[in-house]
TrEMBL record:
Source domain of life: Bacteria
Limits of the DUF202 domain: 20-85
Membrane topology: Multi-pass membrane protein
InterPro entries tied to this protein: DUF202
Subcellular location: Endomembrane system
Protein name per Swiss-Prot or TrEMBL: DUF202 domain-containing protein
Stretches for region Disordered: 1-24
Organism: Streptomyces celluloflavus
Length: 119
């Protein structure tokens, strides 16, 4: 229990009121920034594929998977941004979280494979 003579001691009771509109707006903006970043990565990967003289099957497959993962990310992000309009938005479904997490790990592995010597 806190010392009643301290300045930072607060009386028991409900938490101070906060503007509920700020957190959903920040979350919506974060999803927009993440979507933009994913789009830039997908465009740069496509550009790299086009600029390479004769891309191998690994590069073509990797870029195709990247395109599918980009599409999945944009769809989930769009749904989350729309959900932020609700007064009390629902959390991210576990399946969507797993897809996003797995996609992120897959992109990291793909990026590491591309950077390996001999590629």
């Amino acid at each position: 229990m806190g010392d009643p003579g301290r300045e930072d001691a607060r009386p028991p009771g409900p938490a101070p009121h906060r503007d509920a509109g700020l957190q959903p707006e920040r979350t919506r903006l974060a999803w927009r920034r993440s979507s933009l970043s994913a789009t830039v990565v997908a465009v740069l990967a496509g550009r790299q594929l086009v600029r390479s003289g004769a891309p191998g099957p690994v590069e073509v497959l990797g870029t195709a998977l990247l395109g599918l993962m980009w599409l999945m990310f944009v769809v989930i992000a769009h749904r989350r941004m729309r959900a932020m309009a609700a007064a009390r938005p629902a959390g991210l479904p576990p399946r969507a979280a797993l897809l996003l997490g797995g996609g992120t790990v897959a992109l990291a592995v793909f990026g590491a494979a591309i950077l390996l010597p001999g590629h």
